[in-house]
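Checklist before submission:
- one chain only
- standard amino acids only
- sequence pasted in full

Submission:
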Amino acid sequence: MNTHRENWLAWFLWTLVSLAMFAGFWFYLVLHRLVGLSVHQLVRAYVVLAVILFGFAAAAKPSREQFINYGRIAPLAIAVWSMFLFACLWFVYYAREFGYLNSSAALVLYIGSPLFIGLLALLTYPFTRWFARDFMPRGSGGTKESGISK
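Returned file contents:
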């Protein structure tokens, strides 16, 4: 069986490219130019976002290989939904810090975000398994033992 492997360096370089594009458009153009936040305020938020994305890249690479090689969708789904949850909490924290949310709205979002993301993940997981089964590339390693048939 030909196993699919990806290069760690290429994986993290693409993460750097996506962070650079995100910084250029959202942080500089939208948040700095249009909203008026200072670059000094945005640096810490960008560093935290970079940590979240590099953590996601480190989790998504091996789980993507498991999906392609063995048909296991659960590790990849967990990595994606965890990244969504951390990004949502990141957004709430910095919206509160920059003064766009009051403390009670932030509290509601801090409690509601994990509940909403968790519920959404549970509701979409059957569809994810169905899409993975029906749209798996031919010749991939999905087996009945892994839950996804060829």
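Reviewer check: Residues 25 and 106 are 26 Å apart (CA to CA).
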